[in-house]
Amino acid sequence: MHKLLFIIIASFALLAPQGAHAERIRDLGSFQGLRANQLTGYGVVVGLQGTGDDNFEYLTEAMRGISGRLGLQLPPGVSPGLRNAAAVIVTAELPPFAKPGQRIDITVSTLGRAKSLRGGALILTSLVGADGQVYAMAQGNVAVGGLGVSGRDGSQLTVNVPTVGRIADGASVERAVATGFDREGRLRYNLHQADFLTASRVRDAVNRSFPGSATIVDGVTLEFVLPFGNNERSAMLAQIEMIDIVPAPQAARVIVNSRTGTVVINQAVRLQPAAISHGKLTIRIDEAPQVVQPAPLSDGVTAVEESSVISVEDQSSNVIAMPGAASLSEIVDALNLLGVGASDLVVILEALKQAGALQAEMVIL
């Protein structure tokens, strides 16, 4: 009796609708101003095994500047062969609240004709922000995950990308970015995806913990009133980030990659009953050239006579009644009734959308 009761309860549990998944506020958006900043610099990698830029003009000028800083002046008109050096672009992200002396990772990419950065070392390079100010200094040995080799006969073998490398903790922060966190009385929070329902739920959840502190600016942005003092502000934001809310249901959307034929359908898509007939026209051309010999004792020459056979095959199909579908599994079963490939499925989905039978937004990549 107890076993039968357990089976019945388990069956009702499986049939009951599953609740929406709650997510933390920190995963749904980010605070305005508290973000990473991009840094860029131009530098030179030395110590390469003959895989550098050789006489690349920009590299030669850079080496003149570097040698000048070290007290070595190259004679005018001299263009040194620099097969062991390469001109590179250095990029990095400066995290929010980064302070002078902290280390950040950098990426080094070749700018000219260098074949590989394996075994090279980056010479001291300044990294600047969008405002032109220097925020970090980079230097160190480049770690390359790719491999490129070539033979004397011109054959080449490349594994991954040997012209891009990274230096872990390769840059030292020299200047901090002002965020205004310790001065502003209000802080804005931006959702990753615009949605008024999600914004309303975030506002209500924050106001339950901190009454009157959250207001909606628009479908993306909310504004929080912060208390005075960095300790109080940090504690408040830490609690806000960990609040769980149920975001608004996603809009019905079908993503189609026309180049690869990939089709992705989310669970909000719905299908209305429709009748579909999909045929395929195949045109085949067979070439069968024939060699024609001239008659004996004639002045003719051997010639090739072209012979082409063109055939057309029309694979017509019967009309298929596609039932309505309200869940993702039902939609998959309904589409599988057609028995078509990915490219044909894209055409059918677009036609269903035009006919009003597909309740979803079509996104073509």
Write the layout of secondary structure elements.
Layout: H1 2-15, E1 23-24, H2 25-28, E2 29-31, E3 37-46, H3 57-69, E4 85-94, E5 103-110, E6 121-128, E7 134-141, E8 143-144, E9 147-150, E10 156-159, E11 164-173, E12 186-191, H4 196-209, E13 214-216, E14 221-225, H5 230-241, E15 244-245, E16 253-257, E17 262-265, E18 270-271, E19 274-276, E20 280-287, E21 290-292, E22 303-305, E23 308-315, E24 320-322, H6 328-336, H7 342-355, E25 358-359, E26 361-364
Can you describe this structure?
- With 365 residues, the protein is of the alpha+beta class.
- The chain contains seven helices and 26 strands.
- The strands form nine sheets. Strands 3-4-5-11-7-6 form a six-stranded antiparallel β-barrel. Strands 2-12-14-13 form a four-stranded antiparallel sheet. The protein has a three-stranded mixed sheet with strand order 17-16-26, with helices on one face.
- Strand 6 (121-128) and strand 7 (134-141) form a beta hairpin.
- The radius of gyration is 33 Å and the shape is flat.
- The two termini are 57 Å apart.
- The model is unreliable at 1-19 (pLDDT under 50).
